[in-house]
Write the structure tokens for this entry.
Amino acid sequence: MPKVTKKIKATEAQKKDSSSKNKILKDVSRTLGTKDILANDFNNLEAVKNDLSDFFKRYGFSQLETPIMEKAEMFKNNFRRDVSKELYEITSDKGEKLALRSELTQGIIRAFMDHNLNETMPQPVRLFSLGPVFRQEKLQSSRYRQFTQINAEIFGENKPVAEAFLIYTMATLCEDWGLDIEVQINSLGKSECQKEYRNKLISYYKERGNRSKICNECRKNLTKDPMALLDCTEKECLNLAEGAPQIVDFLNEESREYFQKLVEYLDELGIKYNFNPRLVRGLNYYNDTVFEFWPLADNGQPQYKYALGGGGRYDRLVEKISGQEISGVGMALGLERIVYKLKDKNLILFPQPENLIFLAQLSERAKLKSIQIFEELRKEGFNVRNSFVASSLKKQLEEAKQLQTRICLILGKKELTDDTILLRDMDSGMQEIIPQKKLIKELQKKLN
Ligand code: HAM
């Protein structure tokens, strides 16, 4: 009897063990708001990164990489709307309050200051960076909690030529990629213009029962950040924002002239834009210029909810982080959204390698030999692919076809013994046996 009890106990323990194992497996699903990037999307992402990096480098921007974790205070104290809700905060073992960066801008400003780049780099200082950012946002389509941004920031240029350049970069590249966008521009003026405008907005929303027509979130925001109401995408708030006073009527002389100059530059560069008096951006650290890039839907309508990027002038933010009066202007582009749009339009940016050769093998020994041949061909500059694991010729030929290869080389037992290789033209299906010694010459002849 005691033996049986022991056995039963052991079985229960095992059951417990196996149920907890199952539980662990159930927990490894992908985190909400994150995304795996595979195959074509990945290649498009790389192509977009390369095109943008290339553009910035040509115009003297230096690339830098800053840490994903920074001091939380840097984001909290820097005017981002609702930042407390969206920041992923971490407490270090020493009790420091850290955060996963919700933007690249603050880290770039910190690095600019820490490394004294204002003294050591040519003026204006031009920096670009790319990498993941994290925001604890409401889940919606095209809105992730981890996504990739590429940022370009210019320090020490107080003329609108800096903004014009940034807008020009994105507009030109979108044209090259075949993406239709509409550039939105507005001016938020200086702090004093914004102060007067805020008071006017509060009165507008409070008058004639307007307050009762806005969403709960906007009602909460009304007195502390009325400009955020213009950014709300709820239908009732959009309707009311249509009739709201416009900041352009509150700009002082200096800001008016500044904006006028920007518009002249954009005209000279041949960039089409839409003056959007309600564009305030989801961040409140900007002064003067703000801009966004909205993709166009198939019906030609701009999709404001899916902005591909945006930016503006942020002199106050630089001053707040660096303690120095240096002007700053920059933009961030959302790479996942750009790639999504490219896919939606069936646009593929990365070029398929030309003249691809596939190397198939039919035995264990042939597998080893094919690794040597693969290397010889690669060193000669041929584009070679190989399925090192598949054994059946049918499967290997299917893979060669999928890759759209021009030539398939087949190495079987007979070829191994004779030091030959079978060359198959994938278009015509013609096959010929070639001595391995003459393979490179033969391929050069055929692919030329
Ligand atoms: P932002 O408008 O918050 O600006 O973000 C820039 C771009 O990042 C957006 O236009 C969008 O393409 C992408 N993005 C933003 N949030 C998400 C999300 N949840 N999921 C997917 N993509 C998203 C900034 O971040 C400022 N730091 C821009 C800047 C740089 N201003 C001056 N310098």
